[in-house]
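Sample entry (89 residues):
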Amino acid sequence: VYGPNLRASCRRLEDAGWLRTLRAPNLQLAVELTDAGRAVAQPLLPAGGTSATDLAVELNGITYQACRGDFVVRLDGSTCLQLWNKEGR
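Predicted structure, serialized as tokens:
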């Protein structure tokens, strides 16, 4: 039902401990954030979708300034978290 890129991306995020994959009997796929995933995502999830100011986001011990984050699944199946600051970079 789902392409290999989506399944592989979910598997990588699950291996990192950031989400839990849920599969329904009808083969629908759903994911939920774990506590660790929520801790990473929470600063990037204000009510409006984009923070009015840059916030400190720590990933793997490195602090970044970001007002928005997008989870990206590339065509080759690799993934990344793309962070944006108020300057659009």
